[in-house]
């Protein structure tokens, strides 16, 4: 498989998702980038912006094993990873696997559950494995989490810990549709027979586990020249030097941004990374890895604007 094949595969997945989802092109593009970079994505937006629906259609178009967890205040870690249940007939413990044992996990409304349960995802997201009762169980090598959350100002939410936020390759803010898209949504979904069953849209699987592994290997071979490596390092280091940021991005942020840039290049049919790949992904890759200084918060500064300014101030290779 080469980068042209990866681009064609991504185009086919987009077309399948578009059968059910109107608009949200930037959301699907970032989900594809996260997929081919081997990362996870957090979608944040108000209720009713098709976050969950987009994730479900995305999984359907991939054709991989799919799991879903609806996070609630009373959800327990065992509800996510599973548990060993004693079988009285055999006199032995039997492993009951939780929904996390899949290729693509939809963690719906992840900030509706307390930190203890949120932490159950930490090991899985980083190590692609879960441990309970002293035994480690491997997950799929291509395990991916697509998490959704409501904005923090909504009632009944628990902010994600910094350690868990850092596990996400991207944090994407899902926006409202424009007027044309909103009219299309009303026409398409406003009928009396509207259904949330995505089977009605005829979304067909465009890939499988073996094809995805080949695509990921192709992305890993995309060329990242020293000049672009230096550009990523300079940008990440600027976040630590900015007076507007109390906490800057970690070295892991730079490594993950490089992986994402490789994936974006492959999705564009290129076997090499250009500075524009880094610029396009800087905000979704860094917005959740930095913390505003108290002065910046008082001034009403936005993380997105600060990161955008840092991108403009960092000299890009030519």
Total number of beta strands: 11
Q: From the alpha-carbon coordinates, what is the Rg to the nearest angstrom?
A: 20 Å
Under CATH, the topology of the largest domain can be stated as Rossmann fold
Strand neighbour order, sheet with most strands: 2-5-8-1-9
Which stretches are low in confidence, meaning pLDDT under 50 for 5 or more residues running?
none
Protein name: Magnesium chelatase
InterPro entries: AAA+_ATPase, ATPase_AAA-3, CbbQ/NirQ/NorQ/GpvN, ChlI/MoxR_AAA_lid, P-loop_NTPase
Family: Belongs to the MoxR family.
Organism: Rhizobium loti (Mesorhizobium loti)
Structure explained in plain terms:
This protein is α/β, with parallel strands linked by helices and 318 residues long. It folds into two domains: 3-185, Rossmann fold (3-Layer(aba) Sandwich); 222-312, Magnesium chelatase subunit I, C-Terminal domain (Helicase, Ruva Protein, domain 3). It is built from 14 helices and eleven strands. It has helices spanning 3-17, 25-37, 51-62, 77-81, 115-118, 120-127, 162-165, 179-189, 209-220, 226-241, 251-267, 275-286, 294-298, 303-313; strands spanning 41-44, 66-70, 82-87, 92-97, 104-108, 129-132, 135-138, 144-149, 170-173, 245-247, 291-292. The strands form four sheets. It has a five-stranded parallel sheet. A hairpin with a 2-residue loop joins strand 6 and strand 7. It starts with a helix and ends in a 5-residue tail after the last helix.
Topology, element by element:
Blueprint: H1 3-17, H2 25-37, E1 41-44, H3 51-62, E2 66-70, H4 77-81, E3 82-87, E4 92-97, E5 104-108, H5 115-118, H6 120-127, E6 129-132, E7 135-138, E8 144-149, H7 162-165, E9 170-173, H8 179-189, H9 209-220, H10 226-241, E10 245-247, H11 251-267, H12 275-286, E11 291-292, H13 294-298, H14 303-313
Parallel strand pairs: 1-8, 1-9, 2-5, 5-8
Antiparallel strand pairs: 3-4, 6-7, 10-11
Helix pairs in contact: 1-3, 2-11, 9-11, 10-11, 11-12, 12-14
């Amino acid at each position: 498989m080469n980068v042209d094949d990866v681009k064609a595969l991504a185009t086919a997945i987009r077309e399948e998702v578009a059968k059910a989802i109107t608009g949200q092109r930037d959301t699907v593009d970032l989900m594809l980038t996260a997929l081919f970079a081997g990362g996870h994505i957090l979608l944040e937006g108000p209720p009713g912006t098709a976050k969950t629906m987009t994730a479900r259609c995305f999984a359907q178009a991939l054709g991989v094993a799919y799991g879903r967890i609806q996070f609630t205040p009373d959800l327990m870690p065992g509800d996510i990873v599973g548990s060993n249940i004693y079988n009285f007939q055999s006199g032995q413990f039997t492993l009951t696997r939780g929904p996390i044992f899949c290729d693509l996990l939809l963690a719906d409304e992840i900030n509706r559950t307390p930190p203890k349960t949120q932490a159950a995802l930490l090991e899985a997201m980083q190590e692609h494995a879960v441990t309970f009762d002293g035994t480690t169980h491997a997950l799929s090598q291509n395990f991916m989490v697509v998490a959704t959350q409501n904005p923090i100002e909504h009632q009944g939410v628990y902010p994600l810990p910094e350690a868990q936020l850092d596990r996400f390759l991207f944090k994407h803010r899902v926006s409202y549709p424009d007027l044309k898209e909103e009219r299309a949504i009303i026409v398409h979904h406003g009928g009396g027979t509207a259904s949330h069953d995505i089977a009605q849209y005829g979304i067909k699987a465009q890939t499988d586990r073996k094809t995805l592994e080949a695509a990921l290997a192709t992305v890993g071979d995309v060329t990242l020249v020293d000049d672009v490596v230096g550009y990523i390092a300079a940008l990440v280091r600027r976040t630590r030097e900015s007076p507007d940021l109390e906490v800057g991005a970690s070295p892991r942020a730079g490594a993950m941004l490089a992986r994402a840039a490789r994936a974006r290049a492959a999705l564009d049919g290129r076997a090499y990374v250009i500075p524009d790949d880094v610029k396009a992904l800087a905000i979704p890759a860094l917005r959740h890895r930095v913390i505003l200084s108290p002065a910046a918060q008082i001034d009403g500064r936005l993380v997105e604007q600060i990161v955008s300014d840092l991108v403009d101030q960092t000299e890009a290779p030519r």
